[in-house]
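User: Structure with beta-D-galactopyranose, tokens only please.
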Amino acid sequence: MKGKKAILMAAACLVLTSCQGKPKEEDKSSIRIGISLYRGEDTFINNIRGELEEKAKEYEQSRGIKVTLDIQDAKGSQNVQNDQVERFISLGCDVVCINPVDRMDASLMIDRAMTAGVPVVFFNRQPVEEDMNRWDQLYYVGVDAKETAVLQGWIVVDLYRKDPRALDINGDGVVSYVLLEGESSHQDSLIRTEWSIQTLKDGGVPIEKITGGIANWERSQASALMEQWLDAWPDTIELVVSNNDDMALGAIDALERAGIRDVNVVGIDGTIPGTEALEAGKLLGTVSANKEVYAGAIMELAASCALGQELPDSYPLTDGAYYWVLQEIMTFKEN
Ligand code: GAL
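Assistant:
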């Protein structure tokens, strides 16, 4: 059992966790945090980056501790990310925050951090459990992928129960859908796909899949796929279920180019462009994790680790290592 788990059990119901690897440095007046993003152009990650910068400023002002953030973009390359982590450590970062490029391949970065005694806060792309269990100074901040998917499914189930014809546009008793998926190896894509569709079935929506494809979270890839599908199945698609907002927006781009207005599209993320599309009535709904809480949890965990302090009670960790950010449904239509 990991050290942190044992401590949590001993503390019974008290939510009290501390970053233990480092000695307390109560008089430390500045901290340096290295952050590596898997791909800076990713809209959701970009939104989180913006919030992280805000949270660092807030932390500085409220605690009187200077926070230096060194944010690097790995541009989709695990080798580049490995080098970035190496550099953060050699520059003397007190903690590193990693949004892994390849969540299955975090071991080299973990080796390096463990050797140097530098704690790691992973986020958004969850390393495998085996890696997470290697050291009690490894943390993860993210959302529960099944919860996301079930909430997304409920957006559609709710609408169907209130107004079946809003979804079954041609009135044939079946809702014909297409599915846009994120990266094939990402836990979020796999779990979201499975549980969104399962929730539609469990909720009694008579769905029929026309087709689906991988668009790697990207708007342009989704737009190209949707254009092909609209050509191949004209006047057939009634619903687009997308693993994230950017791909949902890509589908909407293709629908707009084809002059189609009544097809419902659901996304996930509540990104800034996603929310704008929602407000414009183009997106039926999305599932949003509070980005301030998300970035706040990364910042608080990182700073606590850097200072060797206890994590505030407001950030309870599961199994001493995981902080799950709560999510909510956002819809345009009054479902
Ligand atoms: C997902 C998010 C996607 C994309 C991906 C990157 O959680 O919904 O939009 O940002 O993470 O790992």
